[in-house]
């Protein structure tokens, strides 16, 4: 249709009107943004001033006025300490309601950053602002996107489609992010919706940015650690960098941050003695400041397990006096810490029990499970409390449909005093079995095995039901292993599977499954795979060779601390892979190639001792590592760090240091390392009664040799090896009497013969004579279902031979065999080994 001149003029007038309206609107906005009202809002120093201006100028307020007013209100609050903030006063003020309504009405005209800032500062406006920000998501700058993501995270929208959309944007723009603050916020916000490959890219980016900046703020490192907790990954390179930042940021280490970091490290299985020492000093200096239940609970959680006797007693006394004020969560934390401290303070335990009665209804199911476990391990004997716990647990069991919860309830119910299997337990377990993962099956199996042992003595019918259910459970476990086709997922499940059921039922099938999936072993999962083999105690040559091959081929990709555990596997199992020297030398070279930058940042002093011992068992003594450990300043630092470790860790490190010292003295005399564990060995070595097997064998040896004075029982050698029996044969294979050697006999009931380390009391043997050490090896000396001797027993044999012994090691599977079921057969067996020609 042709346009008439009138139509053309009409259209031009319409366009001109739109342009004028658009220009007028923007001029008004620009005028208002520069007017006195905006300046007055931004100049306010108190909330009431802001509200007064809002009340007098409601009709004039633009979106910029509203955004500025809300921002000023937040900034005024932020300047005040937490106890002095007046958030409730603001939210309940009539003029804040006005701002609330105006913000919702004008949100479409607000700038992107204003929308996000308003949402961040005032969560009461979440609905309208989230919707508006979602519409503009693609146009948000990275700082605004990170702030918006954090708002959603704080509102517990962890799995929302909107978080997924943000994750997609981050994935697309990851290479352009150069600010660790922005990255750290985005990482924790999207942590619940990312894939493993995306997670790895985020970790690499975070590692890059943490290393690029000279000064990284404490909060950024804290967010990175939180991200690792969220994705349940112990990634040592990042954790070590975060830990260094924490150590440099002592001014931020208040009780709240210290307890948070301790909690993160605990969940991630990461520990750092240097951080513990700093925390211990800071908390010990300010112990009097924590006089309210919240801060004292955090103090008890962090300081309690590493406190000395005086501070520990002080904490316990304060805990008793403050107990009445503890919340349900704080009681749980206190009991958890008491259990970790192995606290047997009956007064404090009774106090906790007395206040627990009023808190029991506040716990959700998993908290109740943990609570019950702590009380049992603390040896609580309050039957009334356990009865209440049992009723609550039964209530949760009846209503629960979640396999993990049901399994946890059943496991902990078996721990209760006088616990019995009831029909509901059998029915619930039977119904949920097909849905259970391996850790859940393990929980139920552990309970059933315990109940079955008890029930067989009391209620035969229930015992039969338990046995049938256990068989079904075994079948489910086998089926889950046989259907497994992803090694990473399998390793994740097996991490939490252990105990009698795993060792006796699942272990063999687990090894078969691992062999089937052997091609999926990579440098990324080789550590978890090594942990599995350590747990199984199985010497599976095919799997061990695969680990060695993957390690050598990818040595530069594997973290040094992970190399330690791989070496530990081969050392403890006493297994040499095909290219044994190449494997160990590559691993050692990787560990010590750049000592100052590599080992010292990855290993603490006690870790280096453990590493040195593992290498010594395998027969390797890198001089640079040995000289570093046996150094006065190193040993002094070690003593300091051991103060903050658990008693179990202390004992392990002390034992490994002694064994390493002994190995170096015997195998590397050229290093001139002195033996300094004489007093330690005298103090630690157990002097118990001689068991019936030793007494029986001692009588047979006396019969073979011609008298008890020809053999010694429970002998301590130089360097404090204990051997079951010792005798001396001359060059003609005739026994030599210890009486003739002028060595006094010890009491047969267990007093050990102690040789002086310098052999001052040890008489020289006649020419051609030989000392014989006869050792009985129990199942612990061998790999599971194997005749192959493990590392520690092999080292002992090696060292005894260096001390001049001919070593006879008698395996349990030979001595307990049907072939040696008679005394005559045993006598003949001993004679053969004693008199065999070397």
TrEMBL record:
Pfam families per the record?
FAST_1, FAST_2, RAP
| Record keyword Mitochondrion present | yes
Query: What terms describe the molecular function in GO for this protein?
Result: RNA binding
List, alphabetically, the SMART domains matched: RAP
| Single GO biological process annotation from the record | mitochondrial RNA processing
Q: Which UniProt keywords apply?
A: Mitochondrion
Question: What InterPro entries has UniProt attached to this entry?
Answer: FAST_2, FAST_kinase, FAST_Leu-rich, RAP
- GO cellular-component terms in the record? mitochondrial matrix; ribonucleoprotein granule
Tell me where in this chain the RAP domain is found.
772-832
Q: Where in the cell is it found?
A: Mitochondrion
Protein name per Swiss-Prot or TrEMBL? FAST kinase domains 1
Q: Please report the organism this UniProt entry assigns to the protein.
A: Apteryx owenii (Little spotted kiwi)
